[in-house]
Structures are given as C-alpha cells and as structure tokens.
Amino acid sequence: MSASKRGGLYGRARGLARELAKFGAVGGLGLLVNLGVFNLLRHTTDLQVVRTSVIATVVAIAFNYVGFRYFTYRDRDKSGRTRELTLFLLFSVVGLVIENGLLYAATYGMGWDSPLQSNVFKFLGIAVATAFRFWSYRTWVFRALPTPATPAAEPVVVVRPAAAAVRAERAERREVPVPDRH
Hints:
By secondary structure, the protein is mainly alpha-helical. It has five helices and no strands.
C-alpha cells in the first residue's frame, strides 16, 4: 500500500475516532439526562414506566440536538436547518421506539418492573438505539460538507523583474537587447 493511501486511511480513521469521541461525550451527557429524568419521574410521579421513559427520552433528544449541532457536528453542512431538524426528529423518534420498545417488552411482556430491572432495560434500549442514531445522524442528518475538488494544475507564471521582462520582450520581437545596467 502506498504512503498516500495509508495517510488517507489513517486520516479517515482519526477523523472517525474523533467523531465517535465527540458523539460519545454528547451521548454520555444525554444518557445522564435521560436516566436522571426517568428515575426522577419514576420515583416522584404515578406515571407508567414506559410513559416516564418516553418523556425522559424526549428531554434527552432535545439536549442531544443542541450538543450534536454545536459540538459534535459543528463543522458539517449548516444549510437547510429545516431539513436537518426534520430528519433529526424522524431518526430520533425511530430511536425512541427502539429504546422504549425494549423497555415495554421487558415490563409488560416479561413482567420485569422493579426499578433495577427498568433501569437495566432502559439502558439496553438506549445502547441499541444509540448505534442506530450514530449511523443515521452522520449519514443523513449532519452530512459532511463536500470535499473541495483538487484543482487542475495551473500554468506556472514566472514573475521577472521589470528590466528582465523588458529585455525578454525585446528579444522575442528580435530587437536589439538593452544591456543590463546593474
């Protein structure tokens, strides 16, 4: 493999690693928001577990949008914010269904409704939904700006001092050259 291909692969791998780290930082804080709101509502209200989880997920989605737009993907295409927000919400709702579908199956399908069990399945749902969200956000929502095309080789322009330019011009016209006075 040539050095330029290795450098390109290395550069892309570093870029992906950096993106994953930023996504993880925002996602980690979003996880804390999600679980914090979930447990706060679960212990202070009489709402059903999945309803509580949906509310917590919506709060985390709002938090995450701000973090992704202004931290993780701040260098991405900013034109078409309506399109971006619409796609973000669409893919976030799919993630919400994945996340809370697992909790629903555990709570109502298997009868696992203790606070510990609810938190375990909420966390597992978040993990599965996060993989989907990472793929969809980077692919469809926060699109990379197109890389500028490599410019074609331009002709080389030689800049000559004024006296040298005059001599060269006269030589081209086959006039008598002017002696250099330097």
